[in-house]
Amino acid sequence: MAAIAIVIVSHSKQLALGVRELAAQMVQGQVPIAVAAGIEDPENPLGTDPIQVYEAIASVFSDDGVLVLMDLGSALLSAEMAIEFLPEAQQQKVYLCEAPLVEGAIAAVVAAAAGRDIHQVMAEARGALLAKATQLGVVTKPLSVVSPITTNIELPTREIRLIVSNRLGLHARPAAQFVATAARFQSQILVQNFTRNTELVRGDSINQVTTLGVRQGHELLITATGSDADEALAVLQGLFANNFGEDRVVSQSPAAFHHEVTPTTSGELSGIAASGGVAIAPVVRYQPTHITITEYHVNDPDAEWQRLQSAMNTAQQEIQAVFSQASLQIGDAEAAIFDAQLLFLEDPVLLEAAHQRILDNHINAEAAWQAVVDEVVTSYHALEDSYLQERVDDVVDVGQRVLRLLAGNAPANLHLESPAILVATDLTPSDTAGLDPTKVLGICTTSGSATSHSAIIARTLGIPAVVGVDAQVLHLADGTMMALDGESGKAWVEPESDILDLLAAKQEAWQTAQQEARATAHQPAITRDGRQVSVFANIGSINDVQVAVASGAEGVGLLRTEFLYLDRTSAPTEEEQLAVYQAIAQVLDNRPLIIRTLDVGGDKPLPYIKLGLREANPFLGWRGIRFCLDRPELFKTQLRAILRASVGHQIKIMLPMIATVTEVRAAKVILGEVQAELNQAGIAFDVAMKVGIMVEVPSAVAIADRLAAEVDFFSIGTNDLSQYVMASDRTNPSVANLVDALHPAILRMVQQTVQAAHAAGISVGLCGELAADTLATPILLGLGLDELSVNPQSIPGVKQAIARLSLVESEAIVASALQQDSAEHVRELISTSITPPA
Known about the structure:
Layout: E1 5-10, H1 13-27, E2 33-37, H2 50-60, E3 66-70, H3 74-85, H4 88-91, E4 94-97, H5 101-113, H6 118-126, H7 129-135, E5 157-163, H8 172-183, E6 188-193, E7 201-202, H9 206-210, E8 219-225, H10 229-241, E9 268-270, E10 272-275, E11 278-285, H11 301-330, H12 332-335, H13 337-346, H14 348-361, H15 365-381, H16 386-389, H17 392-407, E12 420-424, H18 429-433, E13 440-445, H19 453-461, E14 465-467, E15 481-485, E16 490-493, H20 497-521, E17 525-526, E18 532-539, H21 542-550, E19 556-560, H22 574-588, E20 593-596, H23 625-630, H24 632-645, E21 651-655, H25 661-681, E22 691-695, H26 698-702, H27 704-708, E23 713-716, H28 718-726, H29 744-759, E24 763-766, H30 777-782, E25 787-790, H31 795-803, H32 807-817, H33 823-833
Parallel strand pairs: 1-2, 1-3, 3-4, 11-12, 12-13, 13-14, 18-19, 18-25, 19-20, 20-21, 21-22, 22-23, 23-24, 24-25
Antiparallel strand pairs: 5-8, 6-7, 6-8, 9-16, 10-14, 11-15, 15-16, 17-18
């Protein structure tokens, strides 16, 4: 008889007995099988009893191992409690297995009867669905959970059921929020899609949650076992109730672009319309370097695991940089795509699988990593939902990034020398987010869809795109003329004159419409009762300023200078900075330019600056003005460049993260030293240049009257101010719902700052994301702000919102808003208070 025993734990005694009978028939009684199922309650016999489970394990105990298979929910808890009743030496021989009950039991007894060891028996049980899936034509192999799932056996399991209301279900961004939230609790979170009848999966695994295939209307079961189970479920339920914040995100519907066309003229290629607009330009082919993986034996698997971990850490830093740049260029909502990529690298199931492959098989990191990525890709492809299938692009994107780092290859260069249409097999989200719309006039690929993340980013960037065209396009020589229409999904190689004329007319009509919108945006923003508010732009590059001016910006309210310092091995020189500041000021043509001094350190480190000890709370650490005051030479170099650029332009300096009057005075002393040095050297600068501060720390609000006496203007940064006032990290989904700048507590801080500024006779602006939310416009008007600074794309909408309002009604709304008890009530108040223009 086989030495390994099986225990079946189920809520239903009839089910367990049936499974045992079926399994026993497979091996003619060669394997001991015990059952612990149901409870002694005639009226409600469904349930599990830890004592029953303990007795079942004890009855078949073997030093070679006991495999315990369970059905749902409390069965796991009962099994864990039962193990605690065993002697400590025996506890080590009992293995809880998450395999499917029926198929797992059959596979396990067959493996045990064949003399396999306990680990091989567990592996067979876990892979039990593969045969069924293959027979049904579903090619899938879910990742194994390498380490046994363990929870605190003394704590109860809680569960909730809910209906998913998101329009696209748990696609990448909400799935990323869900996983990030689940991972922050001590409790073990498990999720089941009732509608699709899936197994329970780990809530802290981005791949397992995504491959549940959750769409709008699906019913989910979420269980939590642990000390903070109730809190975990409450927070998760809040994410669903708030639609993961997607009700505030307005994006172009991909449905409008998702139709096929058939070729009708010579040289015409049919594809899928992915991003509207017309492009006519020579083509440039993009062929990313394909990394070939060779598997080989390694003698030191621990060192190989360290190699993989190092590459993954570097990949995280690279993706974070992409996320930061994308936030500036396409906005936080669309940049959140890269949150899912970051979570992929933190997926515990993925990490365990890769680690186990290296240790068990003594293979190189590249081979192990490629194997687990391939498993995830296969599981995504097996989904019935085409939208979720497309999320595999993000998996491949991350997978290739790590392989490139392991191979020591440099990142691919997608920077074009002259304007062109980019032709490729496909573009990853990372590739697309890095494109320059002034150089990449269009995108034409042989793969992809209108709902892919790359297509979403292309639409946000305003780059016309046609995807899914015939592969013959990949054979075109660079420089071949192409035209494409991202609205109809057609492309033409060396188009004839009549096609060019039609497209040129369409392009001209589109440009005329854009010019009319821009013409309106170039008018001043004046309320119905005559109050004018300046609308400026937040920018982070030279390209941004051109977009800002074209969009109607009356100046730049925030130039983030960090882009000059990142992605390099040393700080930018004074001359390098001077050239950039002058170029931006030249484009602005004497419009105001507020340059924020370097805001790095803490959560935004520079690779060439040694930070010393790792900060436990970087948002509360060595950053902003604190960093610059501690690095006076770095600070002075930037101040010299700004001062030199100020000649003949309306340039102002703004200091970030000011918390005390002492910091302002210290910065002004250094500024005075630089001015004296320039005077001595005979170098001109604007001696009347204004100096302001960012108000983003609660202490700055509390002493705003004192600070106003030291500076020429305030700019309120509601992003950070909201975090600090509410003591909540806006990147942490568990508490991000608290970080709403329309909360009355934050609005009162803004009011206090405005009153202090105006009492001192200085202007005050607001440059946080709140300024771009047109729902908030009446609040910001009523609070008395002199200027709003927003991302360039939001300028026309903000100006229109101002023109529809009156200052009188806005002040009335504010008076009521400050008395509300939540951001939700403030939003409701605004929605019901706005009077349509006559």
